Amino acid sequence: MNFHKNYIFIGMVFILSLSNAQEFNLDAELRPRFEYRNGFNTLTAETFDPATFVSQRTRLNFGYKNADLHTYISLQNVRTWGDISTLSPSDSNGSALHQAWAEAILGQWRFKLGRQEIVYDNHRIFGNVGWAQQARSHDALLIKYLATPKSRLDIGFALNENSESVFEQEYTVNNYKNFQYLWYSTHLKQINISLLFLNTGFAYTDPNQQKVAYNQTFGITGDIHKNKWNADASLYAQTGKIENTQVAALNASAQVSYSLNPKFLVGLGAEYLSGTAMNETDGKLHSFTPLFGTNHKFNGLMDYFYVGNHSNSVGLVDIHANLNYTKNKFSAILAPHFFSSAATVVATNNLEQDSYLGTEIDLTLGYKVSNNITFNAGYSQMFASDTMEIIKGGDASKTNNWAWAMITFSPQFLSYTKD
């Protein structure tokens, strides 16, 4: 009886919300993905066999808008097929709130609070990490000021704790303790320019008391679109401290692409992320960290760099190209990457090594079956050097490859708009 009462109550609330809403959307995403991993993320070795599995992300999304309020709730379950038995009474990961936020609209001002994705520019510093089944979201307050239709200023704050408490407690979650940032973007004719200043605090113990060390990331990014040409560039610096170590790091990138015709696009780019030499003597950390970026998007799809790894290491120089082909519902991208270390790599015999790390070739295919169904697949292979072995371990002479196939279902259950 209570079961039916609960559903009647939910239905009444739903109908009432529609009567007051200017827009209401209810949609879902189901995304199973098969992967074959044989040297993904790190080099394989004689003792390792390839891994095969299917992971799945399932989301249910609710969106509500009226003249002065926007809200969004995204429920999410992430699983690996077979991680529980067929008779299990509970789920391994359960369901979680990927997003749950409300945004008040007050003239040119917006106030957005709650669990939310934070995405800026090309995703290098702030991104939603959409490739990862769990993705990334933050508990934060965003204050937005729309100065003009082409200019915007965002101010963001986050303050993290383990739980409610009576007295101060140590923060033990593998996460940042707090952040504050300013982001400004403006559009000038064919050029978009953005400025970012981010102050991030990480908790650490020194020696018996927890403290918070702050480091700062600041920089500029811009892009231009003219006729068949597209180009973008960015420059970021990092300073402050990680624990008791001073940080002095740099990130620079530039890409240019040209549309040969409506079907073919070619591009060329390079990125530099500074690193700390293995024989460094100045006591500083020169390794740049793309803190909250969608790092899978950069530096090769096999995730050898900056996807849960390569932090505080020798950095990276990534020279890459891409060839894009699109026709009707089909797309294909071929992207080679040529990797080198940005700082000196030293072997166990104290000899400096060649900076070349390896070459990765990524092939990605896509086919839009319908408005609600998309199929994607890919194959990548890493041709690693001996220097890569020093950084990653494993065996560079072995075949290191990765293949995947993914289908995304995006049903729209309800879309209601009132004029």
Q: Look at the structure and give the CATH class.
A: Mainly Beta
Largest sheet, in brief, is: 18 strands, antiparallel, barrel
C-alpha termini separation: 38 Å
Structural class: mainly beta
Fill in the CATH topology: Porin
> What is the helix fraction of residues, given as a range?
under 10%
- Our count of helices gives 2
Q: Which residues form runs of ≥5 with pLDDT under 50? A: none
What does this structure look like?
The protein is mainly β and 419 residues long. The chain has one domain (2-417): Porin (Beta Barrel), CATH 2.40.160.100. It is 6% helix and 55% strand. It has helices at 2-20, 386-392; strands spanning 23-38, 51-65, 69-80, 95-106, 109-116, 138-148, 151-159, 178-188, 191-205, 210-226, 229-242, 245-246, 249-259, 264-273, 316-327, 330-340, 356-370, 373-384, 400-409, 412-417. It has an 18-stranded antiparallel barrel. The longest helix is centred in the N-terminal third of the chain and has 19 residues, at 2-20. It is globular, with a radius of gyration of 24 Å. The mean pLDDT is 94.
What can be said about this structure in brief?
This protein has 419 residues and is mainly β. The chain has two helices and 20 strands.
Core attributes:
2 helices; 419 residues; 6% helix; 18-stranded antiparallel barrel; Porin; mainly beta
